[in-house]
């Protein structure tokens, strides 16, 4: 039983890291209908930038600020160069453009900043904590706490600030939002910048965990099943989906893994997602859409 | 907002059906050129350039049937190619089939069945959700073929190469010329079949589903049936392409040849070559396959050996991404469309002397 609870808690905590990545997706999808495959590349890029500045000797907080500035600049450039010319094109074209974008960002990041594995120290120790008999990773616990703070901050941003409200207006109905004078291009830039900053946070966390290298951009593939379960348009869904996938993966690896030779985590999440699709094709928090001919 | 259906991949190509087909003359000339390749060029060109382009083009065709014609985006092309290769191997080693063409066709059929199974969820879901099921397939196969030694005949390393098999009386590992002609004939036959299929009622129903599957349902097209069929036939092509890639081109292969990068490569082939275009697949394959060679060569010529291979591969990646974006922005119908416009222009304006004079005089009126 201890093993079960330990695995479950470990899985849930790891799940918050999936949620973080998925939230970046949801933000962009909600506001612009773009399925942003390059979220993983943005994650890699931000983590690499951070590591590079840290290696140059900048203080940690300064490096974070510089990275945020770089990511905002990158988001604005992406909107200008890639998204604006593709405005009003269908969603698949936009998706494929972000696929190309992920190649550009990955190539640039590794070409400029090197492709060897680098260590990222964000000042968190991974001490084991004991709660009764149950072992919990301090690192994961702090990350989960940080993720919660981030989500609350985002929620406040969306419900209280003027920009946040315009963002929601655009997500609701782009044409009407535009007709009352909301600058869509600006909104897209902001939303990409916010997603990039969320990506940076996930990049920091994942990078501290497994080192900063190309594998970081594959985190994007972990987030897809989360999106399927939670629905593409719900931040709440991204959180719940991330936790479900995290816990499910950890439990499956522990209990089912040994039966089939282990290493099932790359596809187990997808299997869960597929089963969900059969039960509820729009995800837990997605909206059914009436289609008209 | 929710996911819009796959209305997306609608090409301008279909607006004028007469413009899509290549003329019989052009096809004939191309065929003759392809048949002559081993005679007029070196072993290197035949085996390392023309053959892989043909095979990748065939894989592109398989994906295009599903993505370009039926509108179901897939990132599982590499996985299905792996199924084809491993099925061929299993048929040869465990099934005792000696005749390579039989093994490869049966492997195609097996892959088609697998593709049908993985296409089942698409009956209920749309758009990006379908893409995720294809990713599930991709990762599942990557795990499966590595995890169970049966698939590589309990060898020490998870690589597979065929036992001696016959190819119409020749050995499959023998002369590259035999392998080239086998590939060429298979590619020609399968391409011809695909082109007929697309102009049949099946292809037309696929395109109706792609353009708007709700509307297709309203006019009485059984979209479940035709979507499943598209998954199966697409997988058939991908499976055969995978077997050709693994055993005819590479010789010895492993799951490493069919990872997700392969899926992306095939997807890029159809984006750059042209969605819903048959010859676009081969044009795209040539472009995608040869571009890295050209970049490599250019870097070596202009910069010398100073460039590290790591930097070069990142540069390639960067340029690939840029190209994809440029194509999507400037020419979403791919190189095929560009070529068609170019030929149309040349055809219209084959300038005779008289023409030029008249043109110069009446310029303002044009």
The outline of chain A comes out as globular
CA gyration radius of chain B, whole angstroms? 22 Å
Structural classification of chain B: mainly alpha
Ranges of chain A where pLDDT stays below 50 over 5 or more residues in a row are: none
Dominant shape of chain B: globular
Distance separating the two termini of chain B: 47 Å
Q: How does the helix and strand content of chain A classify structurally?
A: mainly alpha
Note the beta-strand portion of chain A: under 5%
Summed up, the helix count of chain A is 12
Main sheet specs of chain A: 2 strands, antiparallel
Task: Return the average pLDDT of chain B rounded to an integer.
Answer: 83
Order of helices and strands of chain A: HHHHEEHHHHHHHH
| Unreliable spans of chain B | 1-20, 354-366
The tally of beta strands of chain A, per DSSP, is 2
Helix proportion of chain B: over 70%
Question: Using DSSP, what is the number of strands of chain B?
Answer: 4
* C-alpha termini separation of chain A: 54 Å
**H/E element order of chain B:** HHHHHHEEEHHHHEHHHHH
Assembly context of the chains: heterodimer
Average pLDDT, all residues of chain A: 84
Largest interface: A-B, 60 and 52 residues
What does this molecule look like?
The complex is a heterodimer of chains A (293) and B (366). Chain A has twelve helices and two strands, in the order H-H-H-H-E-E-H-H-H-H-H-H-H-H. Chain A has 293 residues and is mostly helical. In chain A, strands 1-2 form a two-stranded antiparallel ribbon. The longest helix of chain A is centred in the N-terminal third of the chain and has 31 residues, at 2-32. Chain B has helices at 17-20, 24-40, 43-69, 77-93, 100-119, 128-147, 176-199, 201-211, 213-218, 223-250, 260-273, 278-302, 309-330, 334-348, 353-361; strands at 159-161, 166-167, 170-171, 252-254. In chain B, a hairpin with a 2-residue loop joins strand 2 (166-167) and strand 3. Chain B starts with 16 loop residues before the first helix and ends in a 5-residue tail after the last helix. In chain B, 46% of the residues are buried. At the A-B interface, helix 4, helix 9 and helix 12 of A face helix 6, helix 9, helix 11 and helix 13 of B.
């Amino acid at each position: 039983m201890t093993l079960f609870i330990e695995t479950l808690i470990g899985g849930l905590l790891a799940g918050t890291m999936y949620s973080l990545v998925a939230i970046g997706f949801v933000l962009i999808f909600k506001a612009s209908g773009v399925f942003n495959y390059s979220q993983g590349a943005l994650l890699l890029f931000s983590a690499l930038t951070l590591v590079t500045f840290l290696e140059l000797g900048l203080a940690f907080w300064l490096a974070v600020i510089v990275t945020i500035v770089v990511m905002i600049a990158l988001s604005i450039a992406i909107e200008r160069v890639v998204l604006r010319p593709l405005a009003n094109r269908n969603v698949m074209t936009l998706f494929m453009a972000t696929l190309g974008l992920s190649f550009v960002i990955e190539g640039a990041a590794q070409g400029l900043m090197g492709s060897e594995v680098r260590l990222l120290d964000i000042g968190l120790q991974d001490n084991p904590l004991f709660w009764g008999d149950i072992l919990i990773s301090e690192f994961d616990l702090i990350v989960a706490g940080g993720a919660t703070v981030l989500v609350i901050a985002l929620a406040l941003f969306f419900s209280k600030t003027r920009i946040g409200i315009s963002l929601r207006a655009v997500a609701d109905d782009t044409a009407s939002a535009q007709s009352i004078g909301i600058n869509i291009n600006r909104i897209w830039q902001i939303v990409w910048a916010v997603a990039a900053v969320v990506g940076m946070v996930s990049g920091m966390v994942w990078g501290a965990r497994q080192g900063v290298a190309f594998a970081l951009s594959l985190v994007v593939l972990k987030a897809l099943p989360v999106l399927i379960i939670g629905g593409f348009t719900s931040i709440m869904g991204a959180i719940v989906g991330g936790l479900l996938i995290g816990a499910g993966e950890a439990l499956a690896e522990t209990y089912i893994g040994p039966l089939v030779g282990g290493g099932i985590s790359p596809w187990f999440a997808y299997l869960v997602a597929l089963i969900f699709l059969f039960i509820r094709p729009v995800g837990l928090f997605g909206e059914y859409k009436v289609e008209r001919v | 907002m929710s996911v819009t259906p796959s209305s997306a991949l609608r090409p301008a190509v279909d607006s004028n059906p007469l413009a899509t087909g290549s003329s019989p003359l052009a096809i004939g000339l191309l065929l003759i050129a392809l048949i002559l390749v081993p005679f007029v060029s070196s072993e290197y060109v035949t085996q390392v350039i023309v053959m892989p382009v043909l095979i990748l083009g065939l894989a592109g065709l398989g994906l295009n049937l599903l993505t370009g014609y039926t509108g179901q985006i897939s990132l599982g092309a590499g996985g299905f190619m792996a199924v084809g290769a491993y099925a061929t191997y299993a048929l040869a080693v465990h099934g005792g089939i000696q005749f390579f063409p039989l093994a490869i066709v049966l492997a195609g059929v097996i892959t088609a069945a697998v593709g049908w199974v993985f296409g089942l969820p698409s009956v209920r879901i749309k758009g990006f959700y379908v893409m995720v099921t294809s990713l599930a397939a991709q990762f599942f196969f990557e795990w499966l073929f590595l995890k169970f030694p049966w698939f590589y005949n309990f060898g020490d390393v998870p690589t597979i190469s065929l036992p001696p098999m016959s190819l119409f009386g020749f050995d499959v590992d023998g002369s590259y010329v035999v392998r080239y002609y086998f590939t060429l004939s298979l590619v020609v036959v399968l391409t011809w079949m695909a082109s007929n299929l697309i102009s049949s009622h099946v292809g037309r129903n696929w395109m109706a589903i792609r353009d708007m599957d709700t509307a297709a349902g309203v006019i009485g097209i059984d979209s479940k049936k035709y979507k499943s069929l598209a998954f199966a036939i697409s997988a058939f092509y991908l499976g055969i392409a995978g077997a050709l890639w693994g055993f005819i081109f590479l010789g010895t292969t492993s799951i490493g040849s069919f990872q997700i990068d392969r899926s992306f490569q095939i997807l890029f082939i159809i984006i750059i070559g042209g969605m819903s275009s048959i010859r676009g697949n081969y044009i795209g394959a040539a472009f995608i396959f040869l571009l890295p060679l050209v970049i490599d060569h250019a870097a070596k010529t202009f910069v010398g050996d100073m460039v590290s291979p790591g930097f070069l591969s990142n540069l390639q990646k960067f340029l690939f991404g840029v190209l994809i974006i440029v194509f999507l922005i400037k020419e979403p119908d791919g190189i095929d469309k560009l070529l068609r416009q170019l030929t149309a222009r040349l055809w219209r304006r084959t300038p005779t002397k008289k023409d030029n004079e008249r043109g110069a005089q009446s310029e303002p009126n044009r």
